[in-house]
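W.,

You were right to be curious about this one. When I first looked at the sequence I had no strong expectations either way, so I just let the prediction run and decided to look at it fresh. Below is the sequence, 166 residues in total, followed by the output.
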Amino acid sequence: MKSKQVIGLAGLAVFSAGLLCAQVPWGYGPPPGGLTPNTPMAQRSAQTTVQSQVTWFQNSTRTASNYGDGGYGMVWQQFQMLQGAYNAFKATLTQRQLSAGANELAELDAGLGILEEAFTNYQQDVANGQSSTSAFNNMCQVLRQASGVWLQEFNSDCGRLRVGWQ
């Protein structure tokens, strides 16, 4: 019986590693030379990447408990990928869009900061004696719901700023 469990866990580990690697290969940020494309197509592409990354992040919060101690790292990695995608998105905005949407972009930045605080809250909850499983499940639920609200605001702001319309 133990050999079947070991084989199953080994297969899961290989499969999981493949999934994580499949999302990491591309980088975010401006291209070499510091020139940032702010064409409508670049904006739409960056917007879609952020939307997809929120979905991947939310999926990681749903499945992370299946990965034991590695679940926290998976959720944290997906959050960092979301931050990177959002920063790359902002790099595609025109100066006019940046100026017109300064308040909205600041609120989106603050929203990501609030999401990041959930990781610190998890660590504090565990340090204060809450079971790591309970604290982790709470953190994942909060992150999933809060990222959904953040995405709604992101989509709304993109419409107001006419992202991809120039």
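Here's what jumped out at me. The radius of gyration is 18 Å. And, maybe more interesting for your project: The chain has one domain: 2-160.

Coffee later to discuss?

I.
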